[in-house]
User: Which sequence fits this backbone?
């Protein structure tokens, strides 16, 4: 490899290399000079665990700290909150009118400048738990603005945390309060249905079934006895009628104590009945007894009172037997009606038992739900009190954002060095590209390799002084243009179009979207 030849080629292209180097250097130095300072400050937050042991009183907010922080972050970085914060703090108030940003650009820029980082967290599988720390940072053109916005974001995080925890606890309490009220109304409704059902079916309730069966058995026994007594009375009436129709006489069978006249009358009747068996009815003795009997019958009838006045002994006994039979018939009818009622009630008892059991089962189920809802409401009240007193898991500030003394970016020496390095790389690439595209013959060896001839001698191309001066003037103008136009152009863009940092961010965002 002929290093001298390649060195001569490089020296021939040295002006191009220097122009590229000047271009990169001017760009790097100008950008490092024009970029505004960026101040970054951060605040640190700590997610505290619950201050009251969970086995004594548990909070109703059961959300992991990482999930809670993600929810808070998304709520803070909403479009409405970011625009309101930018307007309230005047973050973009100092921009020139021609550089004012629309709401979409403000939201994108704010989200890019706000940094919320979470470290640590609860224990994972195979690892011990660590404290959850939150760092909030903001980039701004002034240290005061960076600290103000960072502390405002911290305030919003604390406020959202309180709102979310108390809101969740309050919603839980409201839910169980409504559930207790609903179940209480349901219990009252079912209880009223049970009461109405028992009132309407009080004669056919399952708890009185044995009592009704005993009543049925007693009434059936009573009915049999009444039927037996009625049969006896009807038999006595039949005998009385037969006796009277046969003999024309009746025996006094009244159960009350007979008067002397009644006893005498009965004795005379018995005596006459005995004589009629052997004597003729026209016998004087028989006629005498009949007269005595008629006299005593009138006396006994007069003693019987006004109600039996004019009635014979036969009629009295017959009326007494008919009255007893009618009373037994009425009692039998009443007992049969009662037995029919008892039978209907006993037959309806299984159906009523099923319906009542359904109502009572529903009542018991609602009662269990009601008791559970009351217990849950009590726990919700405790959890709401814990969150109201800030005794649950909360976020606290361990370090406020302070005004930084020096900007954190841009790194001006690094940007300038990057410009110089970029110029070097661009110059070398330009030289290589020019030589790669140049197919001219430069050495005698090229004549031999390309044309297959061997030259006797070679003469280089010699430029005139005018050509040399013209070439040097062009190179000088190129250097001047690079050293002047690049800084002036970047300054014009920075001043009249858009700040360079915002321009770079837009370009990067568009490239990332592409």
Assistant:
């Amino acid at each position: 490899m002929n290093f001298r030849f390649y060195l001569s080629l490089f020296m021939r292209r040295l002006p191009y290399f220097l122009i590229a180097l000047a271009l990169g250097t001017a760009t790097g130095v100008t950008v490092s000079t024009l970029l505004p300072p960026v101040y970054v400050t951060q605040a640190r937050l700590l997610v505290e665990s619950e201050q009251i042991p969970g086995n004594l009183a548990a909070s109703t907010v059961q959300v992991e700290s990482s999930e809670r922080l993600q929810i808070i972050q998304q709520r803070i970085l909403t479009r409405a909150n970011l625009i309101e914060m930018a307007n309230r703090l005047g973050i973009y108030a100092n921009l020139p009118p021609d550089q004012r940003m629309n709401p979409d650009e403000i939201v994108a820029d704010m989200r890019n400048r706000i940094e919320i980082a979470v470290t640590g967290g609860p224990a994972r599988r195979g690892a011990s738990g660590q404290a959850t720390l939150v760092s909030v940072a903001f980039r701004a053109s002034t240290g005061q603005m960076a600290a103000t916005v960072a502390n405002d974001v911290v305030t919003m995080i604390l406020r959202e945390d309180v709102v979310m925890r108390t809101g969740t606890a309050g919603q839980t309490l409201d839910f169980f309060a409504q559930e207790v009220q609903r179940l209480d109304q349901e219990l009252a409704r079912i209880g009223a249905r049970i009461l109405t059902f028992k009132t309407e079916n009080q004669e056919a309730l399952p708890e009185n079934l044995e009592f009704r069966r005993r009543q049925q058995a007693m009434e059936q026994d009573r009915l049999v006895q009444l039927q037996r007594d009625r049969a006896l009375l009807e038999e006595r009436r039949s005998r009385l009628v037969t006796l009277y129709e046969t003999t024309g006489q009746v025996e006094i069978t009244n159960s009350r104590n007979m008067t002397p006249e009644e006893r005498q009358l009965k004795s005379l009747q018995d005596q006459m009945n005995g004589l009629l068996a052997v004597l003729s009815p026209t016998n004087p003795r028989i006629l005498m007894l009949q007269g005595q009997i008629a006299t005593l019958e009138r006396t006994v009838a007069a003693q019987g009172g006004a109600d039996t006045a004019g009635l014979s002994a036969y009629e009295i006994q017959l009326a007494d037997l008919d009255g007893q039979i009618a009373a037994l018939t009425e009692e039998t009818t009443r007992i049969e009606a009662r037995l029919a009622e008892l039978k209907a009630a006993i037959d309806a008892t299984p159906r009523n038992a099923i319906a009542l059991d359904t109502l009572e089962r529903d009542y018991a189920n609602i009662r269990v739900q009601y008791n559970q809802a009351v217990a849950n409401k009590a726990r919700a009240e405790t959890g709401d009190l814990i969150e109201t007193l800030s005794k649950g898991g909360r976020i606290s500030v361990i370090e406020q954002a302070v005004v930084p003394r020096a900007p954190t970016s841009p790194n001006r020496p690094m940007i300038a060095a990057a410009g110089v390095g970029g110029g070097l790389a661009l110059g070398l690439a330009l030289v290589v590209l020019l030589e790669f595209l140049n197919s001219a013959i430069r050495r005698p060896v090229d004549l031999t390799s390309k044309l297959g001839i061997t030259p006797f001698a070679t003469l280089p191309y010699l430029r005139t002084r005018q050509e040399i001066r013209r070439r040097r003037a062009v190179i000088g103008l190129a250097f001047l243009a690079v050293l002047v136009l690049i800084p002036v152009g970047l300054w014009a863009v920075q001043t009249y179009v858009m700040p360079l940092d915002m321009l770079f961010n837009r370009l990067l965002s568009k490239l990332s979207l592409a």
Summary: Residues 505 and 511 are 10 Å apart (CA to CA).
